[in-house]
C-alpha cells in the first residue's frame, strides 16, 4: 500500500548525536562532535555533511556501502573524521581541533541516503567554548542531604521511643488489672465486713 510505503521511508533513516545535544569545550582544545545513523533497509552511495551554523560546510563524506569506509569529499583543515561505518554502529563523528571562541555555535550532522529515495535527516549539537571548566560546588547539596538525613533519623528515633513508651504503659496497665483481680477475690471477714462468710449456726439446744 502507498501509505505504508511512505511510512517506511519516513522512519527508515534516523540520525542521532547521543543523549545530549550540548557540548562544552576548553579554548584551544580538541572536541568530539558525535553522530550516528541507522537505516532499516541499508544504504548505498550515502552522503553525510557537517554544517556550522546551518550554512558553512566543514566536512562531507560519501559511503558506497556498508562494506566500505567513507571517502572524503570535502574537509576543513581543522576537522578530523573519527568514525567508522563497517562496524556495528554507523559512526560519522568528527573532531574539531584547536577550538576557539568563534567556533561556538550550532553543528548539524546531515545524512542523505539515495536508496531511500534521497531521504534526508539531520541532528544538531550546540557547542560552547569556555576559558576554563567551572567546578560544581556541591556544598549546598551536601548540607541539604545532611539535614534531610538527620530529620529522617530523628523521625525513626521518635517512632522507636513511642513504641517503647506504649509498650511500657501497656505492661503497667496489665499489671494493675492483675492486682485488681486478685484483690477482689480476697476474704474480707478479717477486715470486719459482715456477710463476707456464711453465718455460723447456733448450737442446738439441749
Automatic annotation (TrEMBL):
InterPro entries: Ig-like_dom, Ig-like_dom_sf, Ig-like_fold, Ig_sub, Ig_V-set, Myelin_P0-rel. Residues 181-191 have a biased composition (Polar residues). The keyword Membrane applies. Pfam families: V-set. It is found in: Membrane. Residues 178-206 are annotated as: Disordered. Its main location: membrane. GO terms for cellular component: voltage-gated sodium channel complex. Residues 2-126 form the Ig-like domain. One of its GO terms (biological process) is cardiac muscle cell action potential involved in contraction. One of its GO terms (molecular function) is transmembrane transporter binding. Keywords: Disulfide bond, Glycoprotein, Immunoglobulin domain, Membrane, Signal, Transmembrane, Transmembrane helix. It is a single-pass type I membrane protein. The chain crosses the membrane at residues 140-161. This is SCN4B protein. The gene is Scn4b.
Amino acid at each position: 500500500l502507498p501509505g505504508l510505503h511512505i511510512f517506511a521511508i519516513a522512519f527508515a533513516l534516523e540520525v542521532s548525536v547521543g543523549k545530549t545535544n550540548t557540548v562544552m569545550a576548553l579554548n584551544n582544545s580538541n572536541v568530539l562532535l558525535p553522530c550516528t545513523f541507522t537505516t532499516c533497509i541499508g544504504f548505498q552511495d550515502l552522503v553525510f555533511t557537517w554544517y556550522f551554523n546551518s550554512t558553512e560546510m566543514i566536512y562531507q563524506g560519501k559511503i558506497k556501502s556498508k562494506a566500505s569506509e567513507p571517502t572524503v569529499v570535502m574537509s576543513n583543515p581543522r576537522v578530523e573524521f573519527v568514525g567508522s561505518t563497517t562496524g556495528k554502529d554507523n559512526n560519522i563523528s568528527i573532531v574539531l581541533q584547536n577550538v576557539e571562541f568563534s567556533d561556538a555555535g550550532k553543528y548539524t550532522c546531515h545524512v542523505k541516503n539515495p536508496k531511500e529515495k534521497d531521504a534526508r535527516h539531520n541532528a544538531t549539537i550546540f557547542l560552547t567554548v569556555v576559558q576554563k571548566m567551572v567546578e560544581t560546588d556541591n556544598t549546598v547539596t551536601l548540607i541539604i542531604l545532611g539535614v534531610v538525613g538527620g530529620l529522617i533519623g530523628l523521625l525513626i528515633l521518635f517512632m522507636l521511643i513511642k513504641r517503647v513508651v506504649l509498650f511500657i504503659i501497656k505492661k503497667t496497665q496489665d499489671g494493675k488489672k492483675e492486682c485488681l483481680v486478685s484483690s477482689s477475690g480476697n476474704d474480707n471477714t478479717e477486715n470486719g465486713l459482715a456477710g463476707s462468710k456464711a453465718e455460723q449456726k447456733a448450737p442446738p439446744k439441749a
